[in-house]
Amino acid sequence: GENVEQHPSTLSVQEGDSAVIKCTYSDSASNYFPWYKQELGKRPQLIIDIRSNVGEKKDQRIAVTLNKTAKHFSLHITETQPEDSAVYFCAALTGANNLFFGTGTRLTVIP
Amino acid sequence: DTGVSQDPRHKITKRGQNVTFRCDPISEHNRLYWYRQTLGQGPEFLTYFQNEAQLEKSRLLSDRFSAERPKGSFSTLEIQRTEQGDSAMYLCASSFGTGGRYSAGELFFGEGSRLTVL
User: Fold this and answer.
1) Handedness of CA A49, A51, A53, A55 (dihedral sign)
2) Which residues pair with A23 in a beta bridge?
3) Which of A8, A19, B47, B49 could crosslink B69 through cysteines, CB 3.0-4.6 Å?
4) Does B43 touch chain A (CB under 8 A)?
């Protein structure tokens, strides 16, 4: 199946700074790349996604970029706020419509 | 429809017992996924249904695990002869997809069923 690698595993930033999380995938047939935010004790929730026919997508303070040739994609959060603190997971949907997750990044925004 | 629901939310069992979890997806969703998540890790894929057909099973899913989605609606995940290593959060998610290359829909997760094997 797909192999999704994510880094860093932990990230601390000062409030107002930017945070970047990077992921790579192995299956060139993967075509959909969502990012999920998971707060402690809660379910993962989608924050942004990108499809393989698009290189970049932005939604307010959150943006995602995709490089299909290199098979990597990144999450960018600008003007971070304490409520952005959570675990973030990238994922890749294979051609067989199966979604594989990265190992997660624990983001801490320091007020 | 209030989203994906899972039952029970918590289950404590003794090693060797069987447990069954139920997932009710969002009603119009044709795809249903089961994941296992342990503390500090990402969700690990277990199995996936499109309508009532089980399309893929992870190598993680030993013979003790079985999943069904008999009418293409709710699904059950059964673990037989539980082991302490089965202790985890079992997450169900559903989505709608038409099958086209760029048609994948968002996966909506349930709250999960937390299993503790003593």
Assistant:
1) positive
2) A6, A73
3) B49
4) yes
> Least CB-CB distance to A32: which of B44, B99, B104?
B104
Classified as helix, coil or strand, B63 is coil
Residues of chain A contacting residue B107, judged by C-beta atoms under 8 Å apart: 34, 46, 99
| Residues of chain B with C-beta less than 8 angstroms from the C-beta of A93 | 104
Residues 41-80 of A with CB under 8 A from B: 42-46, 49, 51-53
B86, containing H or E segment: none
Alpha-carbon distance values, A33 to A93, A99, B18, B59, B107 (Å) = 6, 9, 36, 23, 11
Q: Percentages helix, strand, coil for chain A, rounded to the nearest 5? A: 5, 55, 40
What stretches in chain A show pLDDT beneath 70?
none
A41 CB neighbour count, 10 Å cutoff: 9
